[in-house]
Structure to design on (226 residues):
C-alpha cells in the first residue's frame, strides 16, 4: 500500500520568513495530494491540494509543488505569521476509493 | 450545521467497556470516512462508506471495531471491550462522493481508556 513520509518533524522559522515542508510517497498511482493544518484540539483543516495533472498550485501565501517523477510534493508558506504555527499533514490518495494515507505531521513554530 | 459534527467530543471509559462514537457528515455528502489519530501521530484510515455501504473496512484494527451508517447520513463507530491501546482521537470526514475530494473533517472524539 501507499506510504507517505514527511520531513522534517519540526520546523521553527522567524516571522516573515518562508517555510518549506516536504513529503514523499511510494505509490505511483497516487493522483491527489492534500495538505491539512491541525490546531490543538481541532480536526485537520484543508489548506491546499493538488492533483497529479498539475505541477504547482498557489493560494495567496501558500503554494504546493508536485514532482511525479521523484514522487515528492512540498508545501511552501511565504511571509509566515505566528498564526501559521500548527501541525501540518500531507496526504496522498489514488482516488480509487479516496482513502487518504497521511504523513506523521510536522510541527511548525513561527517565532514573533 | 455547516460542517462535520462528532459526538461526544471527549469520552473517558474503563477498560472492557463498549463505546459508541457518532458522526454527522456535511449535508449531501455521500462518502464518509473514519480515521484514528494516536498522540503525536498522523491519521490512520479505518473504514469508509459510500452511501450506507462500506466497500473498504481494511483499516479496522480488530473485530472489536465495527461501524455502520444509516439513511446515508449519520454513522456510528463502535468499539467493544475497549483496551488501553484504543485511546486516541477518532476523526470523521465526509466528501461529496466516493472518488471526489476534498475530505472535510470534524473535530474528533478524544477517547481515553482507563
Amino acid at each position: 500500500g501507499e506510504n507517505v513520509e514527511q520531513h522534517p518533524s519540526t520546523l521553527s522559522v522567524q516571522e516573515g520568513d518562508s517555510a518549506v515542508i516536504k513529503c514523499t510517497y511510494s505509490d505511483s498511482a497516487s493522483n491527489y495530494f492534500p495538505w491539512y493544518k491541525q490546531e490543538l484540539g481541532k480536526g485537520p483543516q484543508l489548506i491546499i491540494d493538488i492533483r497529479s495533472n498539475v505541477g504547482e498550485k498557489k493560494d495567496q501565501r501558500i503554494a504546493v509543488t508536485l514532482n511525479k517523477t521523484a514522487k515528492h510534493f512540498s508545501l511552501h508558506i511565504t511571509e509566515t505569521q505566528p498564526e501559521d504555527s500548527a501541525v501540518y499533514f500531507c496526504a496522498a490518495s489514488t482516488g480509487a476509493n479516496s482513502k487518504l494515507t497521511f504523513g506523521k505531521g510536522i510541527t511548525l513554530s513561527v517565532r514573533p | 450545521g455547516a460542517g462535520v459534527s462528532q459526538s461526544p467530543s471527549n469520552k473517558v471509559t474503563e477498560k472492557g467497556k463498549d463505546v459508541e462514537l457518532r458522526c454527522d457528515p456535511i449535508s449531501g455528502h455521500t462518502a464518509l470516512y473514519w480515521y484514528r489519530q494516536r498522540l503525536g501521530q498522523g491519521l490512520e484510515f479505518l473504514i469508509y462508506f459510500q452511501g450506507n455501504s462500506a466497500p473498504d473496512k481494511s483499516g479496522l484494527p480488530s473485530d472489536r471495531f465495527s461501524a455502520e451508517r444509516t439513511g446515508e447520513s449519520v454513522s456510528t463507530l463502535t468499539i467493544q471491550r475497549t483496551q488501553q491501546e484504543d485511546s486516541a482521537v477518532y476523526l470523521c470526514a465526509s466528501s461529496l462522493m466516493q472518488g471526489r475530494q476534498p475530505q472535510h473533517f470534524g473535530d474528533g472524539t478524544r477517547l481515553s481508556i482507563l
Summary: The first strand of chain B starts at residue 5 and ends at 7. Chain B has a mean pLDDT of 94. The two ends of chain B are 33 Å apart (CA to CA).
